[in-house]
Amino acid sequence: MNKSLRKKTATSEAFPRVALVGNPNVGKSVIFGWLTGQYVTVSNYPGTTVEIVQGNSKVGGRRQVIVDTPGINNLIPMSEDERVTRDILLNDEDLKVIQVCDAKNLRRGLLITMQLAEMEKSVVLVLNMADEAKERGITIDHDDLAQLLKIPVLSTIATRRKGLDGLGKGLEAGYIPQIRPVYNPEIEEGVKAIENLLPEKQKGKRALALMLIAGDESLKDWLHCRLSEKVIQKIEEICRILQSQHQEPLGFLINQKRLKAADRILEEVFRKEKRSRGIAASALSNLTTHAVGGIPILLLALYAMYKLVGDFGAGIGVDFLLNEVFGKAVNPAATRVVEYLFPWPFFQDFFVGPYGLVTMGLTYAIAIVLPIVGTFFFAFGLLEDSGYLPRLAVMVNRVFRAMGLSGKAVLPMVLGLGCDTMATLTARVLETKKERIIVTLLLALGVPCSAQIGVMVGMFAGLSFKAIALWAFVVAGTMIGVGFLASKLIPGERADFIMEVPPLRIPTLNNILIKTLARLEWFLKEAVPLFLLGTFFLFVLDRLSLLMALQNMAEPIVVGFLGLPAKATQALLLGFLRRDYGAAGLFVMAKAGELDSIQIVVSLVTITLFIPCVANFFMIIKERGLRQALAMAVFIFPFALLVGGGLNFLLRTLGVRL
What is the mean pLDDT of residues 515-535? Predict the structure, then answer.
């Protein structure tokens, strides 16, 4: 179990736990921020890479632990996120639930309410984004809905903190939803038979029985921990007999009954009135997803990010930390301390030499990369919170179809802009093996992670628009070309693209700051140790006189083919350990005037097309197997050098000036 999770569980066992549950993009994080304030803890759920956020709250006058669960569409999991949420609900029988629902999509929310009722969870139903529903002429009588479900129902606008005051009283009530769809007689008989085989004191037996009947394979471990092999075989036999009596999958039949029950409720509480939404707002929303009209908006968003990250983060932020903080304070102080404590030159070089842990490792990580990625995380949070990213996915759907992918592949690709390692894991959401292989290849080939993007945007600040456009054109063209060829060579079919697009919203500063701080915490914990390891690697190579030997060996490629200074070999070597570390080395060279415009573009193209980092390589092994991971690495590294060298040759031969 994750160490931080272990500590957190130990300190919070004495307090009641409340889970925020709901579909993606319904405002759970905003409500979580209101409930918990600034103090939160983030850790991976045991055995997964899914992050769980927890915090303490005194809403209602009693201290409680609030858990912000990953967004779900069903409690029969189709992804690791959904499995984690299901397991949290299943393993904590006394857990209370705040279900957050998009008021515009009540039908979808009620499907989860029914499953929570079958799990015997006490629920407070929050109909969030009431203002957006009203703009669309949607009115829900939440008092009637509360009477029908027999639970507290709140109408809220979480971003404005409206309607949230009733959460404390609602949680104290502790009512289980009184909504119970009646399934086919054969399914009901199967449910009763399985309920009789489950542990006697188990709560929510009906929910478990329905999950098993629907074919939930992820419950196998849970069953083996609590039941004998003989009982498990009986349950499996009941499910097999039930399925043999129906042509359609049992999960489909169960879901159809739930939808009909939801529709009956909607008939009583829902009515649609005249739309009050502004014409201008509607037009802007439609324009952001238009294949042509959305391009100016995309360019405007990228320009704003460039100004924030490139000018403020890489300019003002880096200059201040590098020159004032580290240049005049940290590094001189560290040098004095190390020289006092360690009179031996070896240890002095180890800490404060040209490849010292402080003067290079910490300086790169904190003074150069941290302000850049910090401003990038903030800018990315703005795009995320505004609802623009799903619109971007819709807009570029046609491009992805040319690469043999459905538009759903945009999701892991966009997540790759945050972390390629995590994005490789989320490729599981794609329905076909072909799509998963292509997306994994493209993530490793040309999607720069947030830390690398931040450093690269800092380098863009010294380039012309033509140079930046050339880099983007080469990388995008390479990815599209490789994706197109892969779609022809890899057998299989692509799946259909279905995605719900949330409305455009004004981002909430508090929510963005919490996300930014959480991501910065991740960077400090995960990236900084690798920066120090990379610096140690360089120190060892330098001490053994291998660094110069490697530079000499790589000179025909780095200098002769790529047209870069021999010193750039260090950055390219460490680009595999962490691609942002390699980019940081190039950033330092560019800032010192050691690279001209063509060399900057060539080096950025080359390092962008490297495998992101060693962690991503291990994740590829985990997800796709050692054989496919090695095949991708054997293709990507020479290919990146070939593209970079080819670009250098063309630019020099044609006499292009950037």
Answer: 79
What is the average per-residue pLDDT within 225-245? 92
* CA 589-592-598 angle, 5° bins: 60
Q: What is the spatial distance between Cα 59 and Cα 50, in angstroms, rounded to a whole number?
A: 27
| 193, 205 contact by CB (below 8 A) | no
Distance CA 302, CA 308 (A): 10
What proportion of the chain, given as a percentage, has pLDDT over 70?
87
At 1 the pLDDT is 35
CA dist 222 → 25, 83, 227 (Å): 29, 12, 9
Report the pLDDT value the prediction gives residue 500, as an integer from 0 to 100.
61
Q: What is the pLDDT of residue 38?
A: 58
Q: Is pTM beyond 0.85 here?
A: no
| Closest of 608, 603, 607, 610 to residue 561, by C-alpha | 603
Q: Which strand (E) or helix (H) includes residue 125?
A: strand 123-128
Reported as half-sphere exposure (CB side, CA atoms, 13 A), residue 16 has a value of 18
Q: What is the mean pLDDT of residues 211-215?
A: 92
- Separation of alpha carbons 266 and 254, rounded Å: 19
| Confidence grade of residue 2 (pLDDT, cut at 50, 70, 90) | very low
> CB of 502 within 8 A of CB of 632?
no
Token pair 């629920």 in the structure block, residue: 123
In terms of Cα–Cα distance, which of 86, 166, 76, 75 is closest to 125?
166
CA pair distance 527, 620, nearest whole angstrom: 19
List, in order of start, the domains of the chain with CATH numbers.
3-173 (3.40.50.300), 185-272 (1.10.287.1770), 294-654 (no CATH)
- The pLDDT mean for the chain works out to 83
Are the C-beta atoms of 601 and 647 separated by less than 8 Å?
yes
CA distance 640 to 610: 6
Q: Each residue of 342-361: b (16+ CB within 10 Å) or e? A: eeeeeebbbbbbebbbbbbb
State the pLDDT at residue 382.
86
Residue-wise pLDDT tens digits, 64-108 = 899 999 888 888 887 777 888 999 998 888 899 999 999 988 999
Please state at what angle helix 205-213 crosses helix 106-118, rounded to 10 degrees. 110
CB atoms within 10 A of CB 279: 8
